[in-house]
């Protein structure tokens, strides 16, 4: 695989991203320590949240069902929070937790940043892939304090086995690229100086090169099993992907006493 000159994650940060990066404190895995410097126990986390709770109702955490829900449950458990229902079996979209100060809402993965940005959820968990695309439409407005290191995969360019991608790029051919990740793809090919026609799809990207819709796809790859099953090969890695905790800016100010212990607990659990 070639190393891209500048993956989308490395473009100059906008003001909003700058704020988000400052919130990250330069390290995605180091939780903010309490004033005494000692890491609080799980019991203390819950007590701190209860102390900080105001009359605004429970905090709302937006999650998508499937891998993000599944991989978030151990992080919540480490923070002393249990969720009795699973959205795979329940049709409920609002789920209580064992902490009366915290509830979950279940939304599409690509809708999580929207719920958080508009304040319908105080915080949420979304893949970096989703956050790139969201930021293009709605710059600023979201803090990203913690890389949770869950739902890890890679955003890649892939082609049909036998398609000479290097030659096509070298010859300056105009490539047709099918993807759900239009913003990331646009930035990647622009940085390489490759002309592309982007075709927006919402899923099953792997089909596009097989039926002549596209020369290449930009999609997520984890085990590589889906590419292999469809006679495709990854030819470039654009950027590694994991999921981030995202927080509504107003909630962080107005409900800091409740939110910060949870943010810290997520950071500790994801670093463990
Ligand atoms: N194969 C994979 N392995 C690991 N992580 C993945 C994989 N595919 C996707 N992800 C990560 O998990 C997140 C959620 O993926 P999921 O498949 O649940 O939603 P989606 O179908 O991509 O989103 P939507 O429902 O909005 O179309 C993605 O945004 C990505 O960050
Ligand atoms: O390298 P692999 O381990 O095979 O994973 C890659 C697949 O995972 C994602 O799809 P997902 O399973 O989320 O299905 P979806 O796109 O229909 O949501 C992605 O879009 C790939 O198709």
Automatic annotation (TrEMBL):
Q: Where is this region: Disordered?
A: 1-59
Q: What class of enzyme is it?
A: transferase
Q: So what EC number does this one have?
A: 2.4.2.17
Q: Where's the ATP phosphoribosyltransferase catalytic domain?
A: 108-266
Which Gene3D superfamilies does the UniProt record give? Periplasmic binding protein-like II (3.40.190.10)
What is the protein's known function? Catalyzes the condensation of ATP and 5-phosphoribose 1-diphosphate to form N'-(5'-phosphoribosyl)-ATP (PR-ATP). Has a crucial role in the pathway because the rate of histidine biosynthesis seems to be controlled primarily by regulation of HisG enzymatic activity.
Indicate the quaternary assembly: Heteromultimer composed of HisG and HisZ subunits.
Family recorded in the similarity comment: Belongs to the ATP phosphoribosyltransferase family. Short subfamily.
What's the protein name? ATP phosphoribosyltransferase
The record lists the organism as Candidimonas nitroreducens
As recorded in Swiss-Prot or TrEMBL, the protein's gene is named: hisG
């Amino acid at each position: 695989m070639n190393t891209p000159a500048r993956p989308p994650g490395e473009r100059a940060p906008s003001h909003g991203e700058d704020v988000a990066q400052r919130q990250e404190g330069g390290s995605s895995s180091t939780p903010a320590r309490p004033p005494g410097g000692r890491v609080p126990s799980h019991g203390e986390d819950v007590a701190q949240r209860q102390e900080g709770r105001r009359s605004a109702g429970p905090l709302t955490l937006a999650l998508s069902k499937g891998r993000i829900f599944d991989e978030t449950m151990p992080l919540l458990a480490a923070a002393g929070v249990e969720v009795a229902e699973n959205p795979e079996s329940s049709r409920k979209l609002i789920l209580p937790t064992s902490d009366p100060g915290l509830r979950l809402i279940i939304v599409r993965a690509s809708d999580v940043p929207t719920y958080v940005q508009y304040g319908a959820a105080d915080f949420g968990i979304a893949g970096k892939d989703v956050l790139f695309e969201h930021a293009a439409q709605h710059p600023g407005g979201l803090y990203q304090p913690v890389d949770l290191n869950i739902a890890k995969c890679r955003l890649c360019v892939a082609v049909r086995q036998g398609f000479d991608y290097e030659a096509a790029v070298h010859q300056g051919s105009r490539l047709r690229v099918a993807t759900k990740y239009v913003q990331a793809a646009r930035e990647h090919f622009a940085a390489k100086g490759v002309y592309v026609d982007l075709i927006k799809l919402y899923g099953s990207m792997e089909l596009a090169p097989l039926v002549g819709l596209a020369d290449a796809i930009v999609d997520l790859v984890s085990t590589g099993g889906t590419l292999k099953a469809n006679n495709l090969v990854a030819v470039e890695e654009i950027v590694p992907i994991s999921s981030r905790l995202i927080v509504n800016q107003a909630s962080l100010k107005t409900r800091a006493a409740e939110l910060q212990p949870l943010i810290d607990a997520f950071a500790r659990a994801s670093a463990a």
